[in-house]
Amino acid sequence: MLDRLLLTVSLATLSAISLWAQPVAKKTAREQFKNPAYEYRPSFPFQGAAGAKYTETGTVESQLNNIYDNFGFGGIIVAPTDSKPFSGKANAEPGYMKHIGSGLQATNPAGASPWLMTLFPGAKSYREYLSPVSKASTPPAPLPAYLSREYFDQLKKILAYSKERGRKVIFYDEVGYPSGIANYTTPEKFNRKLLEKSEEVVAGPQVYRKQLPTPGVLMAVVAMNSQSLERIDLTPQVTNNTLVWNAPAGNWKVMVFTCVTAKRVGSELDYRAGTDYMDPEAVNWFIDKVYEPHAREIGSYFGNTIIQTFFDDVGIFDEERTWTPKFNEKFKQRFGLNPATYYPALWESIGPETDAARIALFDTRAELLADGFPKLVTDWGKRNNIAVSGHCPGNYDPQPVDMNGDPFKFYRAQPIPMVDVIFSYPTGRDGFKLVSDGADFYDKPIVAAETFNTFSPAGKTIGYRRIMELYARGINRLMGSGLPQTDALGGTKTFAEWVGRHSMLLQGGRRVSDIALFYPIADLEAFYQFDAPAYTKDMRWGSFVPYDNDFLAIGEMLLGEVHRDFTFLHPDFLLSDKITLKGPALALNNKVNSQTYKALILPGQRVISLKALQKIKAYYDQGGVVVATSQLPTTAAELVADSRDINANNEKVQAIINDMFGIDPTKPRPDGVSAIRTNKKQGKAVFIRKPDGRIVSATLAQLNVRADVAFDGNPSPTSGGGMFSCLHKKKGKQDIYYFANSSDDAVKTVAEVEGRIRPELWDPATGETTRIEQVDYLKKNGQTYTRFPLRLKAVTSTFVVSNK
Questions:
Q1: Which residues are the signal sequence here (predicted)?
Q2: 3-state secondary structure of 420
């Protein structure tokens, strides 16, 4: 029964997203676990600028045999090649990067939020794990020219042999990165655009004349009074690129906002050489240039041998002022307002409207990006029977505004969302669930990771540590890309099979999560401004957040210390028809991945959507549990046509908070935990000024929010930067519990799970399955629980699968 149920769900999941034509071989779940199918195993970068550096010389077949037979990988990644070495500058000019572009820092810079994650003591750069690459005795053969006949002939040979071997292939769309540069052939008119601002102080009264800057597309001309902050839209007074304005009395700052084409850096890594990801015409040019030739030449392999495409680093990074000429049109469609007088808020305060203006502007940009490159390429994939995947930059970072706009919006079109696992361990760990939790909302069964460049050689301790944390956070397909140069590259079959067993059990099904963690996107957008003096050069990209911005830290506490899984809940999701009130709970209504939340956590934030807060209040009024941390909201996010409505909305936010928590959010709060406020329906609300894992755990217990899985002694190891974590999924009537210990300490505890089950231990290291004999059952408040011993050595993981 167990084998049949697990296999049925697995096949249904694969069929639902049409990744391949032939079904998985008819084996029992135990047989699949012992010898996982190729589609579950990791993929290896084989052809392209990356893969060519790491494959041995010899025939295509001999190189593939090495990957398939010796390394045990399930497939490969192919990509366009270029026969000519890059002719530009090896590196960009000094000062090109406005901020640090690498991973976590050992300590946070002055002025940064104290909640930002840092490296653990003794952490190493991933490069310190590598052995130097040996020089080849003979130089490798030159690669085929970009999109040449020779390239496609070689690609067909690779695909034909991979198909013969039953292996799966992933297609990456670029020679280098980021995607969209088309090997540096993108016409200038389609390149990334930036928003430029020029300004001049005008003392009125006077007739002011100004010749506007060229070239570029004029977005707005605004005069702002230096004292009152009154703003006047001067755009209609521009004729033949000349502004003539009868300035009234007072000091006025006249600001001109122009959308211009970004100047290429000319280095091998040049984000400004790519397409305007928000411009459909530019993106369609790239699709016609790169994707369409592949559809013509190798389209017969789409959906069977080639199971997925992959794009890289499409987003806002590395220029915070990334813009597009059609921005105003989109803004007017969304809000029915002219954005002109809101443009100054991107750089400075415009008074009470600042927060709502920034939120509306940045959210519109996020919408344009989401409906641009990722959606248009996905639409092409649907027409060509191929699943599209890819990632934005900084998908794990706390501040999305200067990285990707909004990760939840970015991934909504893609059938297979992807995280980017780069830099030194544990960079990104606290934010990977931003991608996988969004996939949960959209009911997407597979979440991929571009990885291996952080822990090669594969199969070493650092690799296992990293991967098991990915699986515990909802990622369930692994693919290599951009591997560092090292002789100890491929690992062993043991490693590939270990990965395959994880993916086989964790793809598809329903994740059990009973805590919702509100995503404070409005607060992040309201805080952000271009060229902010406080955003100093020594701060990492994607880290400029408000002081009390603790949402990622709360997530880490829940997983690593409290041992409670949770779901990041975007305000748009909360307000959608998919999230409904279900008695004292919030229900995510999906066909497969449904979830029921017994508690909602409001992380630190000053600005919040009033509409979202009103739904949270309705949940509380029906008996829901709300826990707030660090800072209570005081300000509404909504943009209003009449500025006089701003104070009214803010007062509504403050009144709701006061009613729920019994606290005036406009006044400072002492450290500690507030009294629990209980309403007539037994709804409960509490505020924690300075949260930590111990306080959060105690508070949830006091609120009687029982854990789905609990552990005696609450083991919380941190050695080696690792942790002990758990993931619970349901497939059919079966429960799959994943336990991962990425620390350097052994874990010995007793696990307690809801329901009466007959647990079996499924070991991903060996593929063996054994029944757990020492099992106890007990009842609490009418509910049956199963208890069983759990022992994990350092840096190991295991599954417990129920056999009812």
A1: 1-21
A2: strand
Output the pLDDT for position 127.
63
Domains assigned to the chain:
193-261 (no CATH), 515-702 (3.40.50), 709-802 (2.60.40.1180)
Predicted confidence (pLDDT) per residue in 298-308, tens digit: 999 999 999 99
What one-character DSSP code corresponds to residue 540?
B
Sheet bearing 599-602, strands edge to edge = 567-569, 515-518, 599-602, 625-629, 684-688, 677-678
Q: Using H for helix, E for strand and C for coil, what is the string for 130-172?
A: CCCCCCCCCCCCCCCCCCCHHHHHHHHHHHHHHHHCCCEEEEE
CA atoms in the 13 A half-sphere facing the CB of 20:
21
Residue 144's alpha-carbon distances to 61, 141, 301, 736, in angstroms, are 17, 9, 21, 47
Query: DSSP string of 440-486?
Result: HHTT-S--EEEESTTTPSTTSHHHHHHHHHHHHTT--EEEE-SPPP-
Per residue in 668-681, pLDDT tens?
A: 999 999 999 999 99
Element (H or E) spanning 647, and its range? Answer: helix 645-661
Length of the chain: 804
Q: If pLDDT is split at 50, 70 and 90, which confidence band does 491 have?
A: low
The residue written with tokens 């690593």 in the block is 560
Is 48:511 a contact under the CB 8 Å cutoff?
no
Whether the model clears a pTM of 0.90, i.e. scores above it, the answer is yes
Mean pLDDT of 699-721: 96
SS3 breakdown of the chain: % helix, strand, coil, rounded to 5? 30, 25, 45
What is residue 422's predicted lDDT score, i.e. its pLDDT?
Answer: 84
Amino acid at site 113: S
Overall average pLDDT of the 176-181 stretch: 94
H-helix or E-strand spanning residue 45: strand 43-45
